[in-house]
Amino acid sequence: MNTLVAQRKRNALGTIGRNWVLVFLVLEFGYFAILTRGFASLHIVQMILFYGTEVFLLATAELFVIITGGIDLSVGYVLGFATVISSKLMVVFASRGLSPLGAIVTSIVITLCIGLIPGFVNGVLVAKLRVPPFIATFSMLGVCQGVSELLMQGIPAKNLPPLAGTIGNGHFLYIVPGSGISLLQRPDVARGVRVIEIIPNAVVFALVFIAIFAFILTKTRFGQHIYAIGGNIDAASRAGIDVKKHIVTVYMISSFFASLAGIIYVMKYITGKADAGAASLLDAIAAVVIGGASMFGGSGTVWRTIVGCLVIATLETGLRMRGTPTFDKYILVGVILIFTVVIERFFPDFKR
Amino acid sequence: MPRPHVQHDTDTPFVQSRTGKLLGRHWALFFLLGMMAIFAFTGPGFFEIVNFQNIIHLATISILLAVAETFVIITGGIDLSVGFVMGLSSTLAARVMVILGSTGIGEPALIALGALAGLLVAFIPGFISGTLVARFKVPPFIATLGMWGICNGITLHLCDGFLPIAGLPSVLPRLGNGYLFYIHKGQSFTLFRKPDYIPDERVRELIRLVPFSFILIAAVVLVFWYILHKSRFGQHTYAIGGNIDAAIRAGIDVDRHLIKIYMLSAFLAGLAGVFNVFQTGIGNYTTFSSMYELFAVAAVVIGGASLLGGKGRIVGSMVGVLVLAVLKNGLAISGVQPFVRYIAVGVLLTFAVIIDQLFPDLF
């Protein structure tokens, strides 16, 4: 009887332990909502999502690699590389007489293809040449930075098609209270009429890809194999999994997501520069760790990673609205990061 | 009739031959020398004593951080916080000097107290990282990444946002960039400071030899070389990195030792920060794109250490720093675009590790 109670208590504690990040996010949001007027509003929530989009994508990229027990330091500069390539291409295509939409779509497709290259090289270095992921991806960081700076020559791309900004800063759904709704297109209304904007396009775009890869990770054999590799690489290899091929694919997924983030950056800010993602690397890794993944591989889920991202994004927006210096964010992210790992030791069934 | 022993001899692959092993063990050194030979042709003024002095003087911070990282990496850990601990020390030392400056205290006392504050503060992040790694079993990567953020935030508080701290005694940069010997050809020879009759604008006419930073570097490298290679502390460091369970069973207090290692690493980062104040004359925060910690790790790995621990040498790390520093300087002097350097460093680093894989049992 006692053991049953103990077991139940243990299970309950385990559930909290596994999901404490979610609890933390709710508490954090509540804290800012109480202290800051106007924080708990649709507008602010959408703002948190909008400014967090790149980190969502980078963290998802990082998650795949971290599940295999690796690390990808290059994501920030692959993002920068993608912003430079796609912004340059958009300008070139638009000036060659392609329609704005045609120029944008073509550039995106080409950028996503080129964006696979850094990941492929990383993967081959790690899987085939047994270079430690830390070194391989740091080298790739340098190469991406150098190549993007060389392409850019110190001048960020100008004269991008204005349509890019319209898409990147637009919303998925517009509701004019009393007169109807409109998809993607901002309705023409008289000045002063309230339009409710729902979900920025950038967020929709990012979440679609994140959802697809979350599905791949949890529901497909490929996803299971990735966890197996991270859990025990020798066992995975003996079980007949082509470990090398999987690792190469994972690094390619990582740089694919980083390139997506780069494209979104270009659409949002209508510019491209080599160091666009330099400061996001810490956020991305921190989000994955706060989301409960182990740096030694074998664990981590997409949705918890996104919760980890939201913890950081809410913190940033909340601090900014309260008027505290934004660099307090770094201190708090550092503290939460360490706290996450320490606290999980006090819960049963922790794996890290 | 098979003759296995002879067969074996002729079939020895290059990597196991004597020349191969020699090349493999010291490839970074050979690479450094080869690079210098090439730059001697491509870069005007590269192969001059003044330039070599410059390379090493400008690499002082990298050398200090690489020594720090060598110890941590040998234990199988990593310290990502060194760059930002350095920023913290640099800004705190500068801040203390500015505050004390308004109290009317004498300049030497003010500089000494500021420098001391910068050195001492570094122990705090080191102690915390070490405790987290040793006692709370937080992976070093995460513990020091957290410390990276915390130090960065505190540093930015110290400099009120993104403003370097100025208004320090003007003697600082003269000390940090001073030389032991000043020779004015055929006219004068002075020690420690330039002759007074030469104004600052004409300082290039002087032959300046042995920067003060050399003395700092020599002292640090010698002391920590001794600690790592000749003392019991160093042996324990290798033991922990080689096999932590064996080290525990051999009676080494691993937890305490790891805390000391992270404090040592942070102390060297603090020293780099204080030196930074002397070199630039202002308190600098560390920018995101500077990536001191990653370059320090890169230098240590080029110098033959393994991220898995148990391997690495101080001299090797020095060669690693010099490879990166000479590459930077040589490419710049040869007129190559600065961005190519990033690519070159990346390629070189990967190359280093692949070579290391080819010669698995050398180091």
Describe this structure as you would to a colleague:
Chain A has a single domain (21-346), classed as Orthogonal Bundle (ABC transporter involved in vitamin B12 uptake, BtuC), CATH 1.10.3470. Helices cover 70% and strands 4% of the residues of chain A. Chain A has 14 helices and three strands. A three-stranded antiparallel beta sheet of chain A has the order 2-1-3. In chain A, helix 13 runs antiparallel to helix 14 (328-343). The radius of gyration of chain A is 22 Å and the shape is globular. The model of chain A has no long low-confidence stretch (mean pLDDT 88). Chain B is mainly alpha-helical and 363 residues long. Chain B has a single domain (26-358), classed as ABC transporter involved in vitamin B12 uptake, BtuC. Chain B contains 16 helices and three strands. Chain B has a three-stranded antiparallel beta sheet with strand order 2-1-3. In chain B, a hairpin with a 3-residue loop joins strand 1 and strand 2 (188-191). The radius of gyration of chain B is 23 Å and the shape is globular. The interface between A and B is large, with 46 and 47 residues.
Report low-confidence residues of chain A grouped into runs of 5 or more: none
Structural class of the secondary elements of chain B? mainly alpha
Q: What's the assembly state of these chains?
A: heterodimer
Name of the CATH first level of chain B: Mainly Alpha
Query: Which structural class matches the secondary elements of chain A?
Result: mainly alpha
